TrEMBL record:
Residues 1-39, 54-209 form the GPAT/DHAPAT C-terminal domain. InterPro entries: GPAT/DHAPAT, GPAT/DHAPAT_C. GO terms for biological process: fatty acid metabolic process; glycerol-3-phosphate metabolic process; phospholipid biosynthetic process; triglyceride biosynthetic process. It comes from the Eukaryota. This is GPAT/DHAPAT C-terminal domain-containing protein. Pfam families: GPAT_C. GO terms for molecular function: glycerol-3-phosphate O-acyltransferase activity. The lineage of its organism: Eukaryota, Sar, Stramenopiles, Oomycota, Saprolegniomycetes.
């Protein structure tokens, strides 16, 4: 209510700064509902209508419970995507592929970086696990390994894009979080301290920018 908003003004100003309220032009509810039913809005990014949002919410609910099943394959997929994106050749590398040893070496770095985020077997050789994940992705025709007798090269297949995008989307939020944290720490001047609460707010601001 308006009264509760006014009473909480001091607390809101202390924790979040100034508060601005904008009143838009009123709409006729029946007319709005009729327009919505006639032509449901379509999401510009996904191309789906809001009628499918209930399914998206369901997938979001179960997301954290299935992440571990896609973790190792996601590490390999994100590493391949990063190598192809950061290469000077750009998309040409995605089609020509990258060296298998280079891929596994960089995947091992990402695997160690996310060690505290996922449950895994510490007594198992990490490189062997990632190599096994690459083999699984090869069997499922996401990747193909060429030149196995000489210098193995990992390349994408023609039907790899949907699966590759899914696997990358599983881990990208974690990678982005680490990037935000490291970038915020690097912005601190040498010899100057910052309260933890202020640092967290800075990270949140950077993540939302």
């Amino acid at each position: 209510s308006v009264g509760a908003l006014l009473k909480s003004y001091q607390v809101l100003r202390q924790d979040f700064g100034s508060v601005s309220v904008r009143f838009g032009s009123p709409i006729h509810l029946k007319q709005f509902v009729a327009t919505y039913k006639a032509a449901p809005p379509v999401d510009a990014k996904t191309g789906s209508t809001r009628e499918q949002y209930s399914n998206m919410i369901g997938l979001g609910y179960y997301r954290n419970k299935i992440l571990h099943w896609f973790y190792k394959e996601g590490v390999v997929a994100c590493t391949f995507h990063a190598l192809s994106t950061n290469s000077n050749q750009g998309s040409a590398m995605a089609s020509s592929g990258c060296n298998k040893d280079t891929l596994l070496q960089h995947a091992l770095f990402l695997h160690e970086l996310l060690a505290v985020e996922f449950v895994r077997k510490e007594y198992v050789d990490s490189r062997s696990e990632l190599d096994g994940a690459l083999t699984t992705l090869t069997q499922r025709r996401v990747f193909a390994v060429e030149g196995a007798n000489a210098t193995p090269t990992v390349v994408l297949t023609d039907d790899s894009q949907p699966t590759l995008s899914l696997l990358c989307a599983v881990l990208w939020p974690f990678i982005d979080s680490y990037w935000v944290a490291v970038t915020s720490l690097l912005a601190i001047k040498a010899g100057e301290g910052i309260p933890p609460k202020a640092l967290v707010k800075r990270m949140q601001w950077l993540a939302e920018t």
